[in-house]
Write a structure and sequence with these properties.
binds adenosine-5'-triphosphate, Transferase(Phosphotransferase), domain 1, 9 helices, 45% helix, 284 residues, 6-stranded mixed beta sheet, alpha+beta, Phosphorylase Kinase, domain 1, elongated, 2 domains
Length: 284
C-alpha cells in the first residue's frame, strides 16, 4: 500500500517534470526573437539583409528625410560600396507587431512588377526594423497633380501623361490584388486619386467647402462646363471625362458597387462610350 502510494507520487512528479520541459520548449520567444527565427528559416534572404549599423551608414545617419508615412519615416540613402540610391523606411517601434512585419516582408519579397517600386532589402536588428526600396528621384505623385489657380508656373503634368500614370498605377494595383491585398478599399483610394488627377484639385476644397464627386457628377449629367484645367485637345477632354466616370465608380459608398481593379484597367483603356454613368455619389 505504502509502496503503491510512493510509486504514485513518483509517477506524478515525473509527469510534472515532463510537462514543464514540454512547456518550456513551446514557450513563445519575444517578438523580435520570433522575427529572427523566421528569417533564419529563410536564408536565401540573407543577401539583402542589413544590420542597423549598415542602415545608419547608408543613410548617412538619417541625414536626408524624404517624408513620413503611416508606418514611419523614409530617408534617402545609398547601398554600400557606391551602390544604388535607395529610400530607407524606418518602421516606428510602436506601430504593428512582429507578425505584421513578417507578413509584410513575405509579400513584398514575392512582388515584382515593372510599375511597382523595387524592394531591395530589409533590416531586422534587435527591435529595429527597416525596409529598403529603390529611390524615386521625382518624389511623390502629389507634386504633379494639382493645378495652382493663382500661380504662374505649374507643376501639374499634362492630362495625357497623368492618364498614362493612372493606367500604370491601376496595372500595379491589379497585380497586387491578384496576390490577395484588400481590394475594395484600395479601389476607393484609387478612385479618389483618379478624380484629383482629372480635376486637378483636391477631392474636398476646404475654401469653398465643395466635395468634388457630387459637384462634378451634377455638371456631367447636366452637360454643363466641367471647368477642367489645362485641356487643349478633344482627346484630352474625352480622356478626362473617362477618368472622372471611372473615378466616380470607384468611390461609390457601397463597396459591392465598386469595380475590380481589372475592370478599372479595362474601362480606362477602352473607349469613353463603354463606360456607363455611375450612380450619383453621396455628399460625404
Ligand atoms: N522609394 C522612394 N523614393 C523616394 N521617395 C520616397 C520613396 N518612398 C517613399 N518616399 C517618400 O516618403 C514619403 C512617405 O512614404 P511612405 O511609403 O512611408 O508613406 P505613404 O506612401 O505616403 O503613406 P502610407 O504609409 O500610408 O503608405 C512619400 O510620400 C515620399 O515622399
Amino acid at each position: 500500500m505504502v509502496l503503491a502510494m510512493v510509486l504514485g507520487v513518483l509517477i506524478f512528479v515525473v509527469e510534472m517534470i515532463a510537462l514543464l520541459c514540454r512547456w518550456s520548449r513551446t514557450k513563445k520567444p519575444k517578438k523580435f526573437e520570433q522575427v529572427e527565427a523566421f528569417l533564419e528559416l529563410h536564408e536565401e534572404r540573407a543577401t539583402n539583409r542589413y544590420k542597423y549599423s549598415e542602415v545608419k551608414k547608408m543613410t548617412n545617419f538619417f541625414k536626408d528625410k524624404l517624408g513620413e508615412g503611416g508606418y514611419g519615416s523614409v530617408f534617402k540613402g545609398q547601398l554600400p560600396n557606391g551602390g544604388a540610391m535607395v529610400a530607407v523606411k524606418i518602421l516606428s517601434e510602436t506601430k504593428g507587431n512582429g507578425d505584421d512585419f513578417i507578413n509584410e516582408l513575405a509579400s513584398i519579397s514575392k512582388t515584382f512588377h515593372r510599375k511597382l517600386i523595387t524592394y531591395l532589402g530589409y533590416c531586422v536588428d534587435r527591435g529595429r526594423r527597416a525596409l529598403i526600396y529603390e529611390f524615386m528621384p521625382n518624389g511623390s505623385l502629389e507634386k504633379y497633380i494639382y493645378y495652382k489657380v493663382s500661380a504662374k508656373a505649374q507643376s501639374r503634368l499634362g492630362l495625357m501623361t497623368l492618364y498614362n500614370i493612372a493606367i500604370g498605377i491601376a496595372d500595379g494595383l491589379q497585380y497586387l490584388h491578384e496576390g490577395g491585398v484588400s481590394r475594395k478599399a484600395d479601389v476607393y483610394s484609387y478612385g479618389k486619386m483618379l478624380l484629383e488627377m482629372a480635376g486637378g484639385r483636391k477631392i474636398f476644397d476646404v475654401q469653398t467647402e465643395t466635395y468634388y464627386p457630387p459637384w462634378i457628377y451634377d455638371k456631367l449629367v447636366a452637360n454643363e462646363n466641367l471647368e477642367l484645367y489645362g485641356i487643349t485637345t478633344p482627346e484630352e477632354e474625352l480622356t478626362a471625362l473617362k477618368m472622372i466616370l471611372v473615378g466616380l465608380w470607384c468611390i461609390q459608398t457601397d463597396p459591392a458597387v465598386r469595380p475590380y481593379m481589372s475592370e478599372v484597367v479595362q474601362m480606362l483603356k477602352g473607349s469613353l462610350d463603354t463606360v456607363p454613368i455611375p450612380p450619383r455619389p453621396s455628399s460625404i
